[in-house]
Design a protein that fits this description.
The complex is a heterodimer of chains A (323) and B (342).
Chain A (H helix, E strand, L loop, with lengths): L3 H25 L14 H7 L8 E4 L4 H7 L3 H8 L23 E4 L6 H14 L7 E6 L6 H12 L4 E7 L2 E2 L2 E2 H4 L5 H6 L4 E6 L3 H16 L5 E6 L17 H8 L3 H11 L5 H24 L20
Helix pairs in contact in A: 1-2, 1-3, 1-11, 1-12, 2-9, 4-12, 5-6
Chain B lengths: L20 E3 H15 L3 E5 L15 H5 L4 E3 L4 H13 L3 E6 L2 H4 L3 H8 L2 H4 L9 E6 L14 H5 L5 E3 L4 H6 L1 H6 L4 E6 L6 E3 L11 E4 L4 E5 L3 H14 L4 E5 L2 E3 L3 H11 L2 E8 L4 H13 L8 E5 L8 H7 L3 H12 L3
Parallel strand pairs in B: 2-3, 2-4, 4-5, 5-7, 6-7, 10-11, 10-13, 13-14
Antiparallel strand pairs in B: 1-8, 6-12, 9-11
Helix pairs in contact in B: 3-5, 10-14, 11-12
Classes of the chains: A alpha/beta (323), B alpha/beta (342).
């Protein structure tokens, strides 16, 4: 039977979906610039994995990380202000869409070099192990494209060799930018790649948030228990283009429509309503609450000041008191 | 005349007093050992640092003393273990990552440039990376074109890194401590020809922000770093026999570059030769020369001269390798040309 935890999952996915839709709108309006990679369609992954992590755990993400940041608990105001490049952004405006950071919440970015965050995650886990902080987990999110990078293979080997507490979350959306998985991998079963390093690897339906949550719960428990890394292949799909620059010429509309039929948000909503966890009025209230939060975040971002140009060369090196 | 490059036999350490003599190799090893004894967060990681004792013998004995967890042998995965060093530093450790040669460091350049040097900035000052990366650099050992290059200038190009090049036994011994205390990534270049050099250890600490004047003279400034400091000192000795007194500036901190010390020297000597084992085009020597032009142009009595490596991948045969590298003879000739003693 679905319960309040499941309503929280629905809220989490809705916040991401509406946030991303607003970002697309703001991008068209010119308020957000640079590259913007939307997570629409993949919400069940971040929303399902993140509730299994504790505040002391660490998260490393990619350039398509708005959803991870929000699900990890970064305030939407700070995330939106970062999109605007304003001083109240979670990275003080210096990072933008692809570099969301919140070290207090142990959210280590926002990395826009494909697979480069994976060795970082291994190092964070190594630090936990060497410092005797047992029971901590580092969750590392990356796409299917990252599995073709050497950094993935080097880091997977290190994590397995040293039995480090890393949860590898491979978000397989079947495209590395515009190149389909079957066109760039000789072996398209990504779990086999992790398994070749003696890493336990499980495929998960990334369009079913409850399945993601349950798989991640087991995986996190295993990693936390000290039995080494686990690899989850979360099979998902992005509805929108790779970035706002992408004309999306490389896939059929019918393919996108087929995936949309499995959209995790209406699926969970229907399930909750069917089982009495949420009534139509409750769902409307949830939608309104999310819409209000987004409006508030945009107003906050718009009101946040730009950094003075005199500060341009800050944070190249640590300032006194940083550590 | 060709003067072959030989390992530095004596070093003119700025420090005096403690007369203990040791090799550069032992000095680096002792610095690592001291740091690991002083701080549990410090550990050494890299290819063959443990059971093998270090490809250059620097870490011999450390595995036995500190164990496998803190003297961590890695697979041949430069990008992976440098990245793990970045993550461990973010996680509160103080890793010393050893890369066997600067040429291999190119496999890890993504982690060094795109992550280590960048996350502090792109996180708006939140994520400092207190990582030390040590690597061997330079030619002179007939290791041909994939083990001999001098790419310090490339690293010195990167904002967010501190780049240091200890040229003396004393600096090898004492610069690691402040490098580990630095909250930001520090890249340390150890010239391969220096490991066997012996000299006085002196006393620490040594700062990692200023250049050091290794010899005083008023006729010409020779600015050098790393492996070329020994050439500059030998050249200065030869010049002194002719009555030309050279001021030798050991740059030693390549980023942020202490050009003020060079400019101060040029104010006295009015002539500058920059010695740099990197290729001439786009070299660190070019940066030094440009800054001198920008800062003290009217102090110069002659154009700045550069002694750099020939623009070839370093060849294997000894005579060709030596011809490609800066030499004492070339430094002396450049100085003589500037001082009218040619």
């Amino acid at each position: 039977m679905p319960g309040t935890a499941d309503v929280a999952l629905l809220r989490s996915m809705l916040r991401i979906r509406r946030f991303e839709e607003k970002c697309a709108e703001l991008y068209s309006a010119g308020s957000i610039r640079g590259f913007l990679h939307l997570y629409i369609g993949e919400e069940a992954v971040a929303a399902g994995v993140m509730p299994n992590l504790e505040p002391d755990d660490a998260v490393v993400a990619t350039y398509r990380e708005h959803g991870h940041a929000l699900a990890r608990g970064l305030p939407m105001r700070a995330v939106m202000a970062e999109m605007f490049g304003r001083v109240d952004g979670c990275s003080h405006g210096r990072g933008g869409s692809m570099h969301l950071f919140d070290i207090g919440r142990r959210f280590f970015g926002g990395n826009a070099i494909v697979a480069a965050g994976i060795p970082t995650a291994v190092g964070l886990a190594l630090a936990d192990r060497m410092a005797g902080r047992t029971g901590r987990v580092t969750a590392c999110f990356f796409g299917d494209g990252a599995v073709a990078e050497g950094a993935f293979h080097e880091a997977a080997n290190l994590a397995a060799l040293w039995q480090l507490p890393v949860l590898f979350c491979c978000e397989n959306n079947y495209y590395a930018m515009g190149t389909a998985l079957r066109r760039y991998e000789s072996q398209t079963d990504l779990c086999l790649k992790a398994a070749s390093y003696e890493i336990a690897a499980w495929p998960v339906d990334g369009m079913d948030v409850l399945a993601v949550r349950d798989a991640a719960r087991h995986a996190v428990a295993a990693v936390r228990g000290g039995s080494g890394p686990v690899f989850l292949e979360l099979r998902t799909y992005r509805y929108r283009a790779h970035s706002m620059y992408d004309p999306d010429r490389y896939r059929d509309r019918s393919e996108i429509e087929k995936w949309k039929e499995r959209d995790p948000i209406p699926a969970l909503s229907a399930r909750l309503q069917e089982h009495g966890g949420l009534d139509p009025a409750g769902e409307r209230a949830l939608q309104d609450e999310v819409a209000a939060e987004i409006e508030d975040a945009v107003a906050f971002a718009e009101a946040s000041p730009l950094e003075p140009v005199d500060d341009l060369e800050r944070w190249v090196y640590s300032e006194a008191g940083t550590r | 005349m060709t003067t072959l490059r030989e390992p530095l036999s004596t070093t003119a350490s700025a420090a005096s007093g403690d007369g203990d003599t040791t090799t550069y190799r032992e000095a680096v090893g002792e610095a690592i050992r001291e740091a690991m004894l002083a701080d549990d967060r410090v550990f050494l990681m890299g290819e063959d640092v443990g059971a093998y004792g270090g490809a250059h013998g620097v870490s011999k004995g450390l595995l036995e003393e500190f164990g496998e967890e803190r003297v961590r042998d890695t697979p041949l995965s430069e990008n992976g273990f440098v990245g793990a060093g970045v993550g461990a530093a973010l996680g509160g450790m103080r890793p010393i990552v050893e890369i066997m040669t600067v040429n291999f460091s190119l496999l890890a350049l993504d982690q060094i440039l795109n992550t280590a040097a960048t996350v502090l900035h792109m996180s708006g000052g939140q994520a400092a990376v207190p990582l030390v990366i040590r690597m061997t650099t330079g030619g002179g050992r007939q290791l041909a074109a994939q083990h001999s290059h001098s790419l310090e200038g490339w690293y010195a190009h990167i904002p967010g890194l501190r780049v240091i090049a200890p040229a003396t036994v004393g600096d090898a011994r004492w610069m690691l401590g402040p490098a580990l205390a630095d909250p930001d990534p520090v890249v340390i270049f150890e010239h391969g020809m220096l490991y066997n050099a012996s000299g006085t250890v002196g006393t620490g600490p040594v700062d990692i922000s200023t250049a050091a004047v290794r010899r005083r003279g008023d006729d010409v400034t020779i600015a050098a770093y790393g492996g070329t400091v020994a050439l500059a000192m030998q050249a200065a000795d030869e010049l002194a026999a002719d009555g030309v007194q050279a001021d030798v500036v050991d740059l030693r901190v390549l980023r942020p570059l202490d050009s003020a010390t060079v400019a101060d020297s040029v104010r006295r000597t009015h002539r500058l030769v920059v010695v740099d084992e990197g290729w001439r085009s786009g070299s660190l020597a070019a940066e030094v020369a440009t800054r001198v032009h920008e800062d003290v142009f009217y102090e110069l009595d002659a154009p700045v001269r550069r002694v750099c490596s020939a623009e070839v991948p370093l060849p294997y045969p000894r005579h060709l390798e030596q011809a490609a590298l800066p030499s004492v003879a070339r430094v002396v000739a450049a100085c003589r040309a500037l001082t009218g003693h040619g």
